[in-house]
């Protein structure tokens, strides 16, 4: 890939630790070079810099102006995703953001249009779809192991993030909720497995108007709930397959696989799309038991940030696998499900996204594994 891609991070909250763990491996493999970090709370940025050799703690403006920063990793809160991305693009930087791409499709469209005009790339989480779990399931579908896909189910059930997150307010405000928070993992996986969506039907509710923070300095504090906390939807794929989505902060636990895909010749149990790996199981037509498939595709032992390394190797003129087009399509699907829930009518999805190119087994991770002891 030539020289490593120089990365600056804006936002040093809890999620940064997972990116830093990946960066330490990818940096040793000459794929990514972390050079600077910034946060509105400078002390948080300084703490990262103190723990990561060669990294400078800067103000946000100084990081955006830094000549050695080629890509900005945007780890700010969702409400700030578009604002920070647009500033980075205006500074001539590539952008990779945490999900969702923006708080609304209108903001997300501004980001993509600005990037196209500036000639820079946009990437966006989740890059979990590049791991061995989703990619092995995709290969099974592409290889015809379940025949023509007919339907899928995707389920995420939890009693709520306030039980563990010390500052969970934004999860329960417009722009939050289980669909916009966790939905990107599931919707991106469904599009990766079954292709783009052309319409969506949704329904939504919330069981409580208040939540109690369960940990941290604000433990016991009551926060209001002003967004839907249980969302269901039916996604109509261009292929004709139908996916049923359930995203909840109101329930407790699900025993079934996070994603199931059903075809004319078999069914697949697909692992949690919030993780990079996990067993893929097949029950073929006429079979008697589930079979665990061998890992056959995806980045082995990958983690958050591998999408940036993948972006760094994207041929000129092509869309990154964890790219802005897929992130925009996923956001429009989720936004459409919420619109449908309140209108009672099906909502057409105007955008489209080709299934990203399949990931060959261990294309990045094999090299990483043999060059690092971290």
Word description of this protein:
With 374 residues, the chain is of the alpha/beta class. The chain folds into two domains: 5-124, Rossmann fold, CATH 3.40.50.720; 128-298 and 329-348, Dihydrodipicolinate Reductase, domain 2 (2-Layer Sandwich), CATH 3.30.360.10. The chain is built from ten helices and 17 strands. It has helices at residues 16-28, 42-51, 60-65, 81-90, 105-118, 132-142, 177-194, 306-312, 324-343, 365-371, and strands at 5-10, 32-38, 56-58, 71-74, 94-97, 122-124, 149-157, 197-205, 210-212, 222-224, 230-237, 242-248, 259-263, 266-270, 281-284, 291-292, 347-348. The strands form three sheets. Strands 16-15-14-13-7-12-11-8-17 form a nine-stranded mixed sheet. Strands 3-2-1-4-5-6 form a six-stranded parallel sheet, sandwiched between helices. It has a two-stranded antiparallel ribbon with strand order 9-10. Helix 4 packs parallel to helix 5 (105-118) and helix 6 packs across helix 7. The model is unreliable at 365-374 (pLDDT under 50).
């Amino acid at each position: 890939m030539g020289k490593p891609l120089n990365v600056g991070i804006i936002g040093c909250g809890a999620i940064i630790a997972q990116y830093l763990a990946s960066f330490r491996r990818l940096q040793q493999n000459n794929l990514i070079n972390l050079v600077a970090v910034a946060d509105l709370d400078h002390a948080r940025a300084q703490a990262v810099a103190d723990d990561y050799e060669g990294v400078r703690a800067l103000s946000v403006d100084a990081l955006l102006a830094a000549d050695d920063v080629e890509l900005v990793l945007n780890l700010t809160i969702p409400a700030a995703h578009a604002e920070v991305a647009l500033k980075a693009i205006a500074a001539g930087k590539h952008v990779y953001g945490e999900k969702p791409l923006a708080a609304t499709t209108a903001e997300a469209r501004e980001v993509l249009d600005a990037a196209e005009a500036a000639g820079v790339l946009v990437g966006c989480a989740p890059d979990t779809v590049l791991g061995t779990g989703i990619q092995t399931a995709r290969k099974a579908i592409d290889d015809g192991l379940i025949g023509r896909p007919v339907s899928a189910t995707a389920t995420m059930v939890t009693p709520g993030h306030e039980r563990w997150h010390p500052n969970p307010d934004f999860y329960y405000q417009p722009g939050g909720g289980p669909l916009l928070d966790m939905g990107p993992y599931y919707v991106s996986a469904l599009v990766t497995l079954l292709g783009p969506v052309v319409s969506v039907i949704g329904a939504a509710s919330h069981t409580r108007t208040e939540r109690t923070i369960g940990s941290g300095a604000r433990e016991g504090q009551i926060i209001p709930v002003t967004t839907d906390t249980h969302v269901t939807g039916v996604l109509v794929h261009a292929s004709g397959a139908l996916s049923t989505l359930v995203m909840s902060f109101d329930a407790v636990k699900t025993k079934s696989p996070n994603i199931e895909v059903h075809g004319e010749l078999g069914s697949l149990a697909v692992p949690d799309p919030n993780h990079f790996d996990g067993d893929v199981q097949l029950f073929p037509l006429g079979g008697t038991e589930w079979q665990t498939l061998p890992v056959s595709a995806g980045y082995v032992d990958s983690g958050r940030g591998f999408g940036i390394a993948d972006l760094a190797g994207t041929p000129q003129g092509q869309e990154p696998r964890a790219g802005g087009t897929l992130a925009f399509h996923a956001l429009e699907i989720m936004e459409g499900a919420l619109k449908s829930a309140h209108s009672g009518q099906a909502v057409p999805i105007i955008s489209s996204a080709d299934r990203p190119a399949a990931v060959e087994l261990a294309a990045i991770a094999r090299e990483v594994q043999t060059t690092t002891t971290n």
